[in-house]
Structure formats: C-alpha cells, structure tokens
Amino acid sequence: MDSMYVIGLGITIIIIILTQIVSKSSSKQNFPPGRKGWPIIGETTTFVSCPVKFVVDRMKDHSPDVFQTSLAGETMAVFCGPAANKFIFSNELKFVKSWLPRSISKALAQQNSDPTSHSFKLADQVSHKFLKLDCIQQYVGTMDSMVQQHLDKFWVPFEQVKVHPLAKEFTFELSCRIFVEFSNPSLQVVKQLRDPFFEFIEGIFSTPLNVPGMPYYKALKGSKLVQEKLYEIMSQRKKKLKLSDDDNHDDSDLLGRFLMASDEHGTCVSKEDVARIIIGFIFASFYTTSTTIAFVVGFLSKHPQVYEKVLQEQMEIKRGKGPGELLTWADVQKMKYSWNVICETMRLRPPATGGYKEAITDFTYSGYNIPKGWKVHWSAYSTSMNPDYFPDPEKFDPARFEGSGPPPYSFVPFGGGPRMCTGKEYARMETLVFLHNLVTKFRFKMVNPNENIFYNPDPVPAEGLQVYLQLHTN
Ligand code: HEM
Hints:
By secondary structure, the chain is an alpha+beta fold. It has 18 helices and 12 strands.
C-alpha cells in the first residue's frame, strides 16, 4: 500500500514538473495559454466526455480567443468566438488546411488514394457537383416517399419508439439509395453494407488500438468490408452500363456519375476514390442528420407551442398537395419556421463539434504564436452557448433565427469558407422532409423528458430518445 502511495506521488510530481516545464516554455515562445494534460492521451478523455464544458471552462480559465491543449496525441490550438471562426474560415490554404487524425482517415479509407492524382481531383469535382443544390434538389420526392415508407413500417404500428436508432437506420438507407443504388428501391445494397458499416461507425472514434477484439480493430475490419462490397457493386454496375443500349448513360446516383466521369486526360475515377468519397458521405451524414432529427423530436415534445407552429406550417404545405403528390424543392423552401426550429436544435446540440485543421505555416492570432504543424480546432461550442450572441442561451427559442438572425460567424454548424460542409443542402432537405412527415402524422411525448446526453464527441441521446406516439385522427 505504502509503495503504491509513493509511486503514485512520484508520478504526480513528475507530471506537475512536466506541466510547469511545458507551460514555461509555452509562455517564453508566446504560445496560447492552456495545458496539455496527461502524457500521450493529453486532455482527450475530458474533451470527448463533454466538449461543451471543456471549451467553455478553458475559455474562462485561459483565454476567450484561443487556448492550447492536447487531443488525439496532437498539440492543438482551440480557436474560440466569431472572430476566430472568421479567421479560420478565411485562411484555408494560407495558414491552415483540413486535417483528420490518422486513425480516422485510415478507417475512412482515405489513405488508399493519392491526393495529387487526376482521379482524386476528378472524384472531388464530381462529388461536389452532385451535392450542389441544383442537382440534389431532384431527390426531394425520393426522400419524401422513403420517409413515408419508413414511418409506415417502423413508427405507425407502435405506440412507443426510439427515435435516434430509427433515424440512423433511415439516414443510412437514404444515403445508400442516393449515393449507391438509386434505381433499385428494394435496396439490396443496404443489406450488403449495413452490418459492416455499423461495425465501422461504432469503433471509429475509439482508442486507435488495432488489436483483435478492440472496437477500433472492428472499425477497420468493417471499413475494409464496406470497401470490398463497394468494389463488387461497382464492377456489376460497370458490366450493366456496358450492356445497356442507353448510350452508357447512368446519372441516377453518385456512383453512376463516378462511373461515367472522365477528364481531359482521359482519366476515370479510380475504385479507391469512389470508395473514399462514398464512405465519407455516408459517414458525414450518419450521426449528424440522425442526431438532429432525434433532438428536434425531443425539443418539439417539450415545447408544445413550437410544435403547433411547425404543424401549422407543414399542414399548409400538405393541404396544397394532391393525394399521393410528393414534396418538391419549392415546398421545402416554404418550411421557414421549421428550419428555424432545426437551427435552434443545432445551436443547443451541435451535430458536429467543429472542424479540425493543421497549421501549414507559422502564424499569429490574438497576439499568440501558432507554429507550423500544430493542429487547430474551431469549436461550435465557443459561440453557441455564449450569452453575448444568444441571450439566455439555455432557452430553446427558434425566434433567434428570425430576421437577420444571430451575429455573423456566431452560428456555424456547417463551418464556413472553402471547406464548409458540402452536404448542407442535403442535410437541410433530409431533416425538413422528415419533420414534415413526422408532425403531419403524429403528436409525440418523450418517455423520459430528463433523458441524459452523452458525447462521442458529438451529442447522443443516452436512451435513444424514446417517445410515445399519437397518430393524428384526421
Ligand atoms: C446536420 C447535418 C450536418 C452538419 C451539422 C455537418 C457539419 C459539418 C462540419 C462542421 C464540417 C467541417 C467543416 C470544416 O472543417 O470547417 C463538415 C464537413 C463536411 N461535411 Fe457535413 N454536416 C452535416 C451533414 C452532412 C451530409 C449529409 C453530408 C454528405 C451528404 C456531409 C458532407 C460533408 C463533407 C464531404 C465535408 C468535408 C468538406 C470539405 O472538407 O471540403 N455533411 N460538415
């Protein structure tokens, strides 16, 4: 017992001395104030367990503009506030470039591609164009009919459902249809990809130990299987394209567009790049849109007067449609109040904690030096709960988004600048179309209005957000 005590005391003293050395050398070189935490793991555990508290506490303790920490084994400067957001978004490729921890980019199959290749550039061009509003808006009707089928099958027969797991299944199916296999509504592809994808997604943020049995090992295995299945699907589609007399034309989904694309050098998109983008898109939409849907349901259940206003807006749109007529992009544009409700939900429960970059040169911000190689994190939490931009920040109040809305760069759930989320319009359409169908079909009440939230590091309802359902009678 005594020797354990002495060892523990010794370790504590060494850490205190190391922390002092680090903070002294930091202050000499005028790095942002902050602490690095434990060797190797740094402050990762504290950050992941509650990113909002992590950021708000450190803004108070160190600096409201920028502080340093250590996350995922990297020294990181966390940029805070609207001015910092503007600075990061405006200096992409001048001071910073996008960055992901190696463990995550490996699981996302990003390391199989060569970023300098023609195929890589072509794949990025095709996929960016695909998610642009003028292309993606053609899928509103498909989203609508898929939501209806999903609700009829998994919600209508039940008095009680868990919203978050259902929203995840729906989001996954939707991405498979729009990105991989549009023309086959029976979605064979979902059956092939679902289990390995869910295994991959469950372990991607875990400790990166590639040892059999560990969640990260399973994530890599799942990712590999998804890649292989995608390669198979691609080669079958290629064969079909060759056989079709339709001028080899198939732009029904993202995969079809990849298979048809070629650039001025005659380069086509490689199978590795197809997998990289499709896995990236399915991953990027998975938690973000499903948690947004779940938390919207939670807030509407707690705020009946907001629910009534959303219902009124959505019923007006529904009354304008004929029987069986699907929603269109013009209908989505009318859902202004509902979008304010979704924005207020994303303010209180940001579906993505922010973005990660790497300093590509030495630069200064707010009087502090950021050396080349440091990682940079802009955090949605540094503004979303700040009473200077959102008075009474804990209050759920969609009216904040009326008129000119919050001050510039204070509400940035999708980031900003050249690396802003390319899936923003897709996410807007999916969440609004889902909300339309939900409120025009049901009233709902949370089974546990005090349900906890845990972070992974994005917020997740701890009990899956369980609600009682009541079908509208007319
Ligand atoms: C509520 C839903 C969503 C939220 C809140 C969200 C948020 C974000 C954020 C914060 C970033 C990082 C921006 C940065 O690094 O500065 C991002 C990047 C990205 N998102 Fe989303 N996202 C959502 C849905 C989607 C969907 C549905 C897709 C695809 C269909 C998608 C695709 C992407 C891609 C490809 C990037 C990387 C962009 C780039 O680096 O050029 N996102 N998203």
